[in-house]
Structure formats: structure tokens, C-alpha cells
Write a structure and sequence with these properties.
5 strands; disordered N terminus
């Protein structure tokens, strides 16, 4: 069965948009590598200048760490190094996936994640790739090879101020989901954006290591459009991200709206799974997080607001990441 799976991946037809995105990601990565090559030469020159600089007659004593701090921090034990790029599931106040991977599973995480980032921002901003390359260089100088790259994104491309455009009006005779717009956003744009990001990260890793680093993607769980934002979403606090769009288009039934979100999340997960099966992406691992968090009458125990888990919810999600990374 494994041989058949590998054969089908190699022989799978890659959509033209994905193929173009892969080439574009490679080109962007090559530009970043060229820039970083210049920067590393500058750094090497700075190292040589430091080596030639007069040494002080008496070297300063190394800074001391208080014994109580050493006792608190414990010994330097690590399950490995991870690099993360993504959105608020990786960059959330007080607790998120990355914090728990560090504190509960002993991974050391280098993160370039920023809450609010969209996948299209990540894919088309050269700064994201440059920051990734710089973090990778830093790790390799310390003789640390990342165990995996964690990639999170897509929620901000779908939810938020523009969410209503994905919906037909409730008073129309059309289905709740505007399939033409959803197809363009999820099936075309997000698919291509993910292919471009993965291609770029892979090219950078291949250049530095001679091999790709495993990449883990995920497609979120079934969000609940109940109108809750961060800490209530009042005044300048972010959210809610879903319910206002439903209300704007006349959809006021929570159960029916939740069913719409299920369809959108399933569709997004489908393209992520499909992208991970692209020939040349054998190092990409899709993590299915659906049904990790509660979706029944007790869902608020796992969901802190419309888009983000509670601390306990993040703990459930983080365990699935740790389980997968532990097998890589």
C-alpha cells in the first residue's frame, strides 16, 4: 500500500496554478538566499574585525545567574528545535500552541508567527521568507537543526471584515455559501498561497541543509459563530469575526450558521490535505485537527471565542502537534 501511495503522489497531476505558485515560491526563496548571502558575508567581516580588535588586559567576568534562578529554570533539556510561521494560533496572549509545545513538551521554538497574518501575506511578503532564513542561520550556527517547520494560517483570510462576501443573502433563493467566491478564495488563492509558502521554505532549507525540513500544516477545527470576540470583543478588542458577517447577510440561526462553518472548514482542510500530497512535497505533513475541540453544548469549555481555543482547548491541539512531530 505504501508503494502505491508514493507512486500515486509522483504521478498526480499538479494544477497549473499550484505549479506556477511552486515556481514563484522557489524564485522568491532564491532572492532571499542571495540577500542573506550578502548579509552573512557582512557578518563574517564583522567577526574578523572583532578577532583583530585589541583584547582587554583583564577579561570581564562572565555574568552570573543567581542560583535560585538556575533552580527555577532547571537543566537545559530539549526535545528538539522547531521553527514556526503562522497566525494567532501560534501567537496568542497567555497561551497558544507554541507556548505549550515549549512548556509541556520541551521543544525549543523559534517563531516568526504574527497574530492577524493572512496566508497571502505570508506567501507574498519577502520579509517572511527572509526572517525564516535568518532564524535558520542562527540555529545552524549553534549546530541546531530544526526538527520541523510548523505552518499555521488561513483563518484570517476567511474570517473577519470580509467574511460576509462568502455568503449569499438569506432572503435570496440561493444556498448560504456563495460557491463561486469560496472556490476562488479557498480552492484557488489559498491553495496557491500555501504551495508558494511551502515551496519557498523548502528551497531555503534545501539550500542550507541539502535536504528539506519536515513541514506540518493544519486546517483548524470547527469554529462556532456565536458572536464572541477576544475578551468579549468590546471596543478595540479584536472580534467577533464570523457572526457579524452572518447577521449582515440575514443569517441569524446559530445552528445553521455553524453548519456553514463546518462546510467551509472541511473545504479548507481538503485543499491543505491536497497540497500536502503534491509531488515534491513528500516532507509535508497535514495535521487534521477537526473534532479535537468540543462542538456540542459544552463547546465554550474548549473555545474561548469564535476563532480561538481556551487554555484547555489549546492544550488538546498542542498534544496533537506534539504527537505528530514526535513521529517525524
Amino acid at each position: 500500500m505504501a508503494k502505491k501511495a508514493r507512486k500515486s503522489r509522483r504521478s498526480a497531476r499538479v494544477p497549473a496554478g499550484v505549479s506556477a505558485a511552486i515556481k514563484s515560491g522557489q524564485a522568491m526563496a532564491e532572492d532571499v538566499i542571495a540577500f542573506r548571502t550578502g548579509q552573512t558575508r557582512k557578518r563574517a567581516a564583522a567577526v574578523r574585525r572583532m578577532a583583530r580588535a585589541p583584547k582587554p588586559r583583564r577579561a570581564p567576568a562572565p555574568p552570573q545567574i543567581p542560583s535560585r534562578t538556575r533552580a527555577l529554570l532547571g537543566t537545559a533539556v530539549s526535545a528538539g528545535v522547531l521553527i514556526a510561521e503562522g497566525d494567532s494560533w501560534f501567537d496568542y496572549p497567555f497561551y497558544d500552541v507554541l507556548q505549550m509545545l515549549e512548556d509541556d513538551y520541551l521543544y525549543d521554538v523559534e517563531s516568526v508567527a504574527h497574530k492577524g497574518d493572512t496566508v497571502e501575506d505570508m506567501a507574498h511578503s519577502g520579509g517572511q521568507f527572509e526572517e525564516f532564513a535568518r532564524r535558520l542561520e542562527k540555529l545552524l550556527r549553534a549546530n541546531k537543526v530544526p526538527r520541523a517547520i510548523l505552518l499555521s494560517g488561513g483563518g484570517n483570510d476567511i474570517a473577519g471584515d470580509e467574511f460576509a462576501i462568502l455568503l449569499n443573502h438569506a432572503a435570496s433563493s440561493l444556498p448560504a455559501i456563495n460557491d463561486d467566491i469560496v472556490r476562488g478564495l479557498i480552492d484557488v488563492r489559498l491553495r496557491a498561497a500555501y504551495a508558494r509558502i511551502i515551496s519557498g521554505l523548502t528551497t531555503i532549507a534545501q539550500t542550507y541543509l541539502g535536504r528539506p525540513i519536515p513541514i506540518v500544516t493544519h486546517g483548524y477545527d470547527y469554529a462556532l459563530p456565536d458572536g464572541r470576540g477576544y475578551l468579549g470583543g468590546f471596543w478595540l478588542l479584536p472580534g467577533p469575526w464570523l457572526e457579524p458577517g452572518f447577521r449582515k447577510k440575514g443569517h441569524v440561526d446559530f445552528g445553521k450558521n455553524s453548519a456553514v462553518i463546518v462546510k467551509l472548514i472541511d473545504r479548507f482542510n481538503a485543499i491543505l490535505k491536497d497540497v500536502s500530497a503534491t509531488p515534491g512535497f513528500e516532507h509535508v505533513h497535514y495535521l487534521n485537527l477537526r473534532n479535537t475541540l468540543r462542538h456540542d453544548g459544552t463547546y465554550k469549555k474548549d473555545w474561548g471565542n469564535e476563532l480561538h481555543p481556551t487554555e484547555e482547548g489549546f492544550r488538546l491541539v498542542s498534544k496533537k502537534f506534539a504527537d505528530l512531530v514526535g513521529k517525524l
